[in-house]
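Minutes, methods subgroup
Present: GH (chair), OT, SY

1. OT presented the first of two proteins processed in the latest run. Sequence and structure tokens recorded below as shown on screen.
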Amino acid sequence: MMAPTKPPKAILFDIGGVVVVSPFQAILDYELANAIPPGWINFSIQKGPHDTGAWQLIERGECILDDTWFSKFKSQLEMRNHWTEFWAREVAKGTLKGDARFPPAMPSIEAKKLFWNMMNMSREPDPYMYPALKKLRLDGRFVLGALSNTVAFPPGIVDHDGVVFSHALVHPPPPHPHAADSTNTQDLFDTFISSAHVGLRKPDPRVYELAVRELDRVAREKGLGRVEKGDVLFLDDIGVNLKWARKSGLRTIKVDLGRSRDAVRELEEETGLKLLEGEGRAKL
């Protein structure tokens, strides 16, 4: 990647798959454990439909997380036309063997178990990005924001095992250097934009506009000057979210599953700061 002409003024982070361990890992683990073609669950979630898909509705805060929603989520994960499209696509790519015209029986998904596996896995800080974020916060030269597609959890809600769910971060025990850190993800940022609370989710261009306005407001309050869209560097693990961020004028870094160290190296290049322990300082 070519070094930018100037460092960003603000850095915007997705949460799941960037700052914390990716829920996509929980999805992949579920698929492999249940002989489901890898990629099917993500495909069915992304297909929506955008206006009425259960996943899209919950991330915009337009419904309540309850058994009715889990039933709708299961239906979204078992839509015959989506399965037919996915099967034909994967056979054409050569990742699955069979007749593209005749998909096998569609997998049955334990929607509640899958969901809570995703949520519980996403409580663990990423081993590379989380320490880098802490260093950026201590440095103080950047406005730090979060832009996350989220779920609003009703108080006292229990997971599929009947355990009351907590979305607090899970840090290693002492003497680990992060052991005493706050368990509230929002404490890492100057501003935190949650899709379920603002009614907009990525990749809607309006949510990027909102994020830039919030980062600009914080920058001016902190005496750091103005922040415009070209001053914002956005990290996410989903391609379509990055695509629309770029169309909105933001700079971007892709955080691939299992390759957050590589993304931190790119972040070093963008900021000119050493963010990985034990490795050479980034060049300004």
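2. SY then presented the second protein from the same run.
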Amino acid sequence: MSQKLKTAGWISVGVIAGALTTVSLQTVARGAMTPLPLEELQQLAAVYGMVKTDYVEPVDDKKLISDAISGMVASLDPHSQYFDKKSFKEFREGTSGRFVGVGIEITQEDGLIKVVSPIEGSPAFRAGIKTNDLITKIDDTAVKGLALNDAVKRMRGEPGTKVTLTLFRKDESRTFPVTITREEIRTQSVRAKMIEPGYAWIRLSQFQERTVDDFVTKVDELYKQDPNIKGLVLDLRNDPGGLLDAAVAISAAFLPADSTVVSTNGQLAESKSTYKASPEFYQRRGGSDPLRSLPAALKTVPLIVLVNEGSASASEIVAGALQDHKRATLMGNQTFGKGSVQTVRPLGPDTGLKITTARYYTPSGKSIQATGIVPDVMLDETAEGNVFAALRTREADLEKHLNSGQGAEVKDPAREQAREEARKRLEAETEAKKPPPKMPEFGTEQDFQLSQAIKQFKGQPVLVSKTLVERKEEKKEN
């Protein structure tokens, strides 16, 4: 293991405005250099020279080189990225769970910025920004065609400064501005409570530096409330990922010692690794085992893991490990399917490169890249069916996504048909001024999937989805 977890990795689904969420291993740059393609580099130099001498106005050298690097890296896959000085600082801040911004998780849809969810307690949350709101302008800048990272940069700033977001809310068919004061966001990644006597719920919304310590604290509190817990629900829905060592630690909390949690494989020797449920694979340098105080009962308590299309990377590592070892029953919807590892390499004191270096595999050796984890029990989002599942973006929907690397890919025409039908239903409801059903807050009495998990524990009939089926990896068009 030695240096492999010297600095932890960061896995993701989208971008959090203020915290980039991506799972990676951070390492030093490679010592060996590959041969340079001289003819192509001469062509690049020729273009650079023409731009410098022929373009209508002077162009900054640093900007030209920075943009060239950004374009080269962005052409690889959706998760590789060049970090300039500002974005590198933001990325490193993101691993701590503290940043200055408005506090929303975002993705891109039809050239606009879509709100995945506001962070609880953040300025955006207090301002009433909702899931699925579309951001059309940031201050006076239209976001149509704006890169996601550029949108993030514009929403970040100094504490106490203001930013105005223009929103389009589909279900209300209206566009309106919201002015938000930026502040330091401290995300709380672990929540827990007793659902009813004997049955506990613990939710991880991200895998951050404090997640493991907070998880241990919450578990200890649950067992103080009820030392004889009969069933525990681990809720990973909409968890976009985070630190790799945190994912290994959470898996280790439930698995037998030295069980395989996840393995990685890529071109580099350092990309061929196996991570196990042992302190050397997740404890921080100089620290002690953060799991040492957990109650022994956690290793054997009946366990259900809730997942959905928003469960990605680090959360898929945990779900896959617990499923493969038959330690938990997985319930919900098929996960996002981000099964790649990004390595962050510094290019200098304040710039860096995040590049995909490996795929990761569950203990049984399955790649979930562009496929995801399939639950043991498929559940609809609500008792009335799936509200937004068909419209949600998954890894396989992203342009230039990496394939699974295992076997042939198949195209699923039923998937796009379901998306189109869901789109039409939403449009019809909007035209009829009929608001679509709202997703209940996770962990409440209205949480349908959680209520089904409790029924599963009690051996009562569960309302299994009649429409959800496994989504196969889709073949990319050439």
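Chair's summary of item 2: The longest strand covers residues 352-361.
Next meeting: continue with the remaining queue.
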